Amino acid sequence: MSYLSRAVKNPRTDAGYCITGGNIAVIDFGTASVSLAFTTKGDQLVNILPLDTQTRSIRVPNIVLLKKEGCKIRVGAFGADAKKRFVSLRSSDCVNYIYFERIKMLMRREQAVDRQTLVESFSGEKYYLVEVIAFILQYLKDLLINHFSRTVRPLKTTDFDWVITVPAIWDARGKRMMREAAYLAGLLTESGGINHLTAQSCSPIPPPDEVNPDKLSLALEPESAAIYSQEVTGAQIEYGLSKASISRPTKYMVIYIGGGTVDITAHTETFDCIRVENTPTGNAWGGTQVNKAFSQLLQKLVHDPDYKKFLASGEQSRQMAIINSILYAEFEEQKVIFGDCKSKEMTIELHPKFANCYDKEIVAKVKEMEGIDYEDYTLFIDESVVESHLFGPALRGIINCIEEAIKVCGSKIDTFYLVGGFGSCKYIHEKVTAAIKEVKGSHCNVIVPVSPHLAVATGAAMWRKNPGIIKARRSDATYGIPVTIPFNSEKHDEHYKYFDDEEDIYRCKNVFCVFLEKGEMVNTDEVISIDLRPASVADTQMFIDIYSTPNVGTQYTVDKKGNSTVTKIGQLVLDVPNPDNLPKSQRLADISMDFSGTEIQAKAKYVTRKEVKTVCDFLSA
């Protein structure tokens, strides 16, 4: 089915990204953990900043403890230290703290986040998600700037080009939220920052001021991992050419499996340039699904859905923190050990308060279940149960996703990179390798690059040095806007016909003017162009709704029953002043939409042919 209206592709007249000054900071904002990478002008290496001053850990849990200080709020602790401090708080002090864990999972594509999206703290209070993220980003920024304040080359916030990593499978809303959180965090200015949480109200929180937007880029996790993997694998092949069993891959698939998401892209490399060959593919079967499976098993053992008895036995937020300490600290440690094939069983020590609360229930239930023992507050889980009940569901979700991606572009692929904290563990590597070779044959290569848990952070810094390395990407959806156009009886349905009194012609309404079709290749040297006019002479701003659909061939934005055929994902806001009181016919705005990058961007020129302020707002409810 052909489209009734399509925007035009034109050559780009400007660079897609501003040239970096050489100082780059990357925040790898993962579901389960975060890391911070940086490189400075003249330095060829990418460094990872230790985020835990005691353990010198370079990747720490994505956990934040906010402290109330009068009418202001600051980060009291972050990472494992936040969990430790929160659990050890006196009951009388809990009211002065707000505690969050793993908030990124709220931003999955299907969640349709906006500025009003709330996140619940462990104490049950709800806050705006974008502001909580901003506190975390601000804390990480301050760590980096404090690090450089003690060196011979003190650097300020604005000396850096900032990069935040995001899943490729996120939609425009999730990406926009990370950008606006960065604005709130003061990532791009020397002043400002966030020091309070907005009280919930009926009025939407306003968008933040966009200051130095070109100083922030969003890097896609699998693309960043691909750049890193190719770099380190290529170097290993080059320096060990006589012993290398493969040549540098040119057609490869990156399978990023982190704590929250599976994110897969297939790439073709030609003359040091990369084309992304598939629409981003993935799901939510990351490593935390194993923790959730253990939680389900534990609830069965204690015979108490949602741990209601334990939560009621003390201050709820503290009790919840103890539960999460079991699920995401004690169990996480055992998950890593089993994942690295260093043990055939799991040994999980339960917190004494939790164990005492449920001791009788656990003892009774364990007798009914094979493969599980219990002694001295400790659960012993046999390999068969670990594989079938804990790792099994996540592994099936991962393999199904990989097999679907291979069906789309697998014939072109001969190398597969496994990256991410969960994807690179030995157990997952062995199972995924076997599944891939069953589909592709034994000739393909499944590679875990060196330091796979840092592939995204390091690769994102490499990408920001040379963003032009990615030459083309495929559109993840069909995008467009609703327009009215002169009615054509040979093309248009009579149902959408109406008479325009002002222009004295028949028009067709609700036409879906398509910018890009799902799966269409978008080159980085081209933009989508369309000319539009304000709705009335009095208008000094234009508000253009942007819609998307996962379908191909959609012609109208509503069907004959009045149901929407597309989904509004955002709005383009243009400043179009009219001091000379020009008629509508002379107030043409030339709009250029860029879908080739990691975010949807727009620019517009107005009557004077000068660029006017243009904002892509994807977060208004």
TrEMBL record:
Domain of life according to the entry: Eukaryota
InterPro entries: ATPase_NBD
SUPFAM superfamilies linked to this entry: Actin-like ATPase domain (SSF53067)
PANTHER family for this protein: ALPHA KINASE/ELONGATION FACTOR 2 KINASE, HEAT SHOCK 70 KDA PROTEIN 12A
Protein name per the record: Uncharacterized protein
